[in-house]
Amino acid sequence: MSGVFFLAWRYLLWHRWKTVILLLAVTLVIYVPLGLQLLVQQTATDMTARADRSPLLLGGRGSPLELVLNSLYFSAGLPPALNYGQVDELRASGLVKPIPLYVRFQSQGHPIVGTNLDYFAFRGLPIAAGRQMVSLGEAVIGARVAERLGIGAGESIVSSPESVFDLAGVYPLKMQVVGVLASAYSQDDNAIFVDVKTAWVIQGLGHGHQDLAQPESAASVLKKDGDRIVANAALVQYNEITADNIDSFHFHGDSDHNPLTAILPVPADDKAGVLIQGRYQSHPQLQIVQPRAIIDELLDTVFAVQRYVLVAMALVGVATAAVVLLVFLLSLRARRAEMDTMSRLGGSRVAIGSLMLAEIVIVLLASVLLAALLTGATLIWGGPLLQAVVMN
Amino acid sequence: MITITDLRFQYSGSDFALQVEQLVIAAAQSVAIVGPSGSGKTTLLNLLAGVLLPDRGQVRVGNEIVSALNDNARRNFRIRQMGMVFQNFELLEYLSVLDNILLPLRIGSGLEATGELRSRAVELAGHVGIGDKLKRYPNQLSQGERQRVAVSRALLLQPALVLADEPTGNLDPSNKTVVLDLLLDYARTHSATLITVTHDQELLPRFDRVVDFRVLNQWEPTV
Fold first, then answer.
1. Which residue of B72, B94, B103 is in closest CB contact with A345?
2. What single-letter DSSP state applies at residue A76?
3. How many CA atoms lie within 13 A of A137 on its CB side?
4. What is the mean pLDDT of residues B46-60?
5. 78-137 in chain B: CB under 8 A from chain A
6. What is the DSSP string of B171-185?
7. d(CA A153, CA A130)
8. Which residues contact A107 (CB under 8 A, 6 or more apart)?
9. Three-state DSSP class for A353?
10. Contact B146, B129 (CB under 8 A)
11. Which of B80, B82, B94 sits opposite A11 (nearest CB)?
């Protein structure tokens, strides 16, 4: 049989364009439904796994899906805000450990997640290099951020302005990267973590500037009215928090009124979880959701779309198989003279009969191999892409 | 020795028939079969090769009654004991010169392209003057070169009988001589029987025997 496979191989090489077209057609018929199915399954598994690890989410009343996608997967949609004061209220209930989340800003395409140290313990995110953030202006970055931006502990990162044309908007803040997280193979790899107060500084709710009481700042004083000093436009505001200027940073107003995008309430036990849900069930401004239930709803929609795509692909597959069969049948007619020659030379009936079968086997095997490689590549690189599509 | 006895063959649906009372060809003899086009010369070769089976009668090659063998046995006998050369060369376009010569080993039952046979193929190619073109493909060769490849393919397994169907029909005069020389030289050195169908009167004196097909075929159309 090796002789037949040799002849089949030489024939396919000789007619390489025909072979390539057949190979691509069969590969696509195998790869598209298989890759799509595996990709959707992988994405669903990843998404539900993260949702399962986040029993509850508290946020402003609005779209529960937006709340979950923003808080768990750090997608771009901004849910209605809730006040930081809710963290204290939840803590005071004794039922849950509240973890604040403020996911609004970005740096070079990576979400900046304002939170506290409890988040890292809750998600199980150890530091791989450097140290944990301890003060205002410090950031810990996910493994993929470090890899993509080529930065590590000791370097800095700058928040992106929300709009470059809005002069009164949020100004970039230069943050010190003090640590890099170990890879968690989750959305956390792609995020930049700062203390929630640092996120407020990015927003402009907190700021640092020259001490106007010092004589060298006289040029920046517009007027003095007793203890009250009004600065003029020459006042230097800091866009980086350093050891030298950290004391000048301050927040105006009550921090309880500062915004969060969500709170992750980690219940002490199941009963505590049920009780805390009951408390917020009919809250006029807030909603508490179970992320798993929300993600399941989303995935139901995705699976429904996937089913239609698979049916369509099955029809395309049947059509392609028919075309491939036609190609081989036409080829059989065109090659009758070749088969006759082999027969007259004394070629065995089995060898001649299996020649085209060997060609089909080679094309199919190569297509399966190529489809497997493409599927593997899709699972590696396509997963995050599909998640981004699903979440947006 | 090749013996045809009381042979009759007719294509289904055709008025033409082949009827040979007896034809005996001695071993190691070179025979030219001549006759007008369409008279059935190629059919006779196919009957000798076991490609076609007679409606009646017997074809014996050496000790084997070819016409009595089943299809597999006839194919086996053909590929091992006979070499076939065709007017249109019938090389496979997608195989190199060397692979075309080795073709019988790829398609023959129980045959393998051993090192020894590959060496023989290379040697044969050198002998017929295409040793430097082993990696070329048929479309890169002249007509004469293609027929030399076909001759090498036919002689690879050192057959006892070579059947050539107008092997010089598509060749220029110099290549005609070269190809016929190759076939006759092989038959002589290997004591093989060579049966050649030809129209070329100039070549006939070089054969041991000439058979006129008009005399051989005793079939007469019914009026």
1. B103
2. S
3. 24
4. 93
5. 78-80, 82, 84, 86, 90, 92-95, 99, 103-109, 111-113
6. S-HHHHHHHHHHHHH
7. 5
8. A157, A158, A159, A160, A175, A192
9. helix
10. no
11. B94
- Residue pair B146/B91 in contact by the 8 Å Cβ criterion: yes
Q: Look up the pTM and report it.
A: 0.70
Distance separating alpha carbons of residues A58 and A287, to the nearest angstrom = 6
Q: What is the ipTM of this complex?
A: 0.92
Strands B30-34 and B209-212, bridge-based pairing: parallel
B71 has a chain A CB within 8 A of its CB: yes
Q: Give me the amino acid identity at A97.
A: K
Question: Residue A111: what residue type?
Answer: P
Amino acid at site A91: R
Say if residues A111 and A74 touch (Cβ distance below 8 Å): yes
Contact state of B82 with A346 under an 8 Å Cβ cutoff? yes
> Given CB atoms, is B72 within the 8 Å cutoff of chain A?
yes
pLDDT digits (tens, 9 = 90+) for A223-280: 777 777 777 766 667 777 877 777 778 777 788 899 999 999 999 898 999 999 999 9
Can you tell me the distance from the alpha carbon of B45 to that of B153, in angstroms, rounded to the nearest whole number? 18
Contact B5, B211 (CB under 8 A): no
Closest Cα partner for A239 from A176, A150, A178, A154?
Answer: A176
**Do A345 and B78 lie within an 8 Å CB cutoff?**
yes
Beta strands in chain A (DSSP E): 57-60, 82-83, 96-107, 110-115, 127-130, 138-141, 156-158, 174-181, 192-195, 206-207, 221-225, 228-231, 250-251, 259-260, 262-267, 286-289
Task: Write the DSSP string, A174-199.
Answer: EEEEEEEEPP-SSGGGG-EEEEHHHH
> Which residues of A lie closer than 8 Å to B, measured between beta carbons?
3-4, 6-7, 10-11, 13-15, 337-338, 341-352
Longest dimension (CA), chain B: 59
**In which band, very low, low, confident or very high, does the pLDDT at B223 lie, cut at 50, 70 and 90?**
low
In whole angstroms, what is the distance from residue A296 CA to residue B126 CA? 74
Q: Do B79 and A343 touch (CB under 8 A)?
A: no
Residues A195, A114 contacting (CB under 8 angstroms): yes
Q: How far apart are CA A312 and CA A194, in angstroms?
A: 46
Inter-chain residue contact A348 with B90, CB threshold 8 Å:
no
> What is the DSSP-derived secondary structure letter of residue A378?
I
Helices A349-377, A16-52: axis angle to 10 degrees equals 40
**Six-digit token string for B142:** 């002249």
Which DSSP symbol is given to A240?
Answer: B
Dist. CA A112–CA A104, nearest whole Å: 7
Query: Cβ of B75 under 8 Å from any chain A Cβ?
Result: yes
